[in-house]
Amino acid sequence: MLLLQQGIFLFFGLLYSDKISERVFCIFMFFEVIDLLFSTYYFLLIVRVIGSWIPQVQHYKFMHFVYYYTEPYLAFFRRLIPPLGMIDLSALVAFLALGLLKSFVLFLFL
Questions:
Q1: How crowded is residue 61: how many other Cβ atoms within 10 Å of its Cβ?
Q2: Cβ pair 71, 91 in contact under 8 A
Q3: Could you tell me if 81 and 89 are in contact, meaning their C-beta atoms sit under 8 angstroms apart?
């Protein structure tokens, strides 16, 4: 979806005058920043999930950083979906919710 938005912005940016292309560039950069923020949080969640499988890495400072920023988000989903034995489905639902939130935010500003 983001590639389609980029193509549309670049097309209209090339089609019209410099003033409009500057605005299009600003909007394009805004979408890129939003996408970068969501991608970074996706990465943190992936590191968190993989780190939970490897007990040795949980003591590193980077993992403390990851836990600090991902725990409130994952705790919200753990309250809604309790773990089923050794299987915690809250991370899967958290990934889906983050993808929906990203789509909703990008749709709001389009």
A1: 7
A2: no
A3: yes
